[in-house]
Design a protein that fits this description.
The protein has 5 helices and 8 strands; from the N terminus they run ααββββββββααα. The chain has 151 residues and is an alpha+beta fold. Strand 4 and strand 5 form a beta hairpin.
């Protein structure tokens, strides 16, 4: 956990978190690896995890019609993927696919939500840091996907 905490402390999203909040977040973190074309998140699927991309590229896509998808955004090193873990109904809004080999830190969003329910200060810090770091993109990426009837 010490190594994970040190890695997270260097990232701008986690830098400056108050109290033992970084410990709580590091407890929910593990390493993940995706091969080219692996689906990381599936549109409409459970949003129980989010990721800090360390290396690689990830396409954020949405379905158009029954079988065609379009890329909305491509993210890479140091970006955070999967904000839907934080916003009810906790369903992925988009398909997220590794464009090339990708390494990430995977966070147990469900476990972190439970920690936030027990400590509102932790929840506030995560939300406030998300807004400061990503601004309007935070809300765009959690909004309803085109063609979807669910928010």
């Amino acid at each position: 956990m010490k190594e994970m905490k040190a890695i997270l402390a260097q990232h701008s999203f986690f830098r400056g978190l108050k109290g033992g909040y970084l410990d709580n977040i590091a407890d929910c973190a593990s390493y993940a690896e995706f091969n080219e074309e692996d689906i990381i998140l599936k549109e409409g699927g459970p949003a129980d995890y989010f990721y800090l991309i360390r290396e690689g590229l990830v396409a954020i896509e949405t379905l158009v019609g029954e079988s065609r998808s379009i890329t909305i955004q491509t993210i890479g090193k140091n970006d955070i993927l999967g904000w839907s873990w934080l916003i009810p109904p906790h369903r992925s809004r988009f398909n997220c696919r590794a464009v090339k080999h990708t390494t990430a830190i995977k966070f147990d969003g469900k476990g972190l939500r439970e920690k936030c329910e027990k400590d509102c200060g932790l929840g506030y810090e995560i939300l406030a840091n998300g807004w400061r770091r990503r601004g309007s993109c935070f809300w765009i990426c959690t909004a309803r996907a085109p063609g979807s009837s669910e928010y």
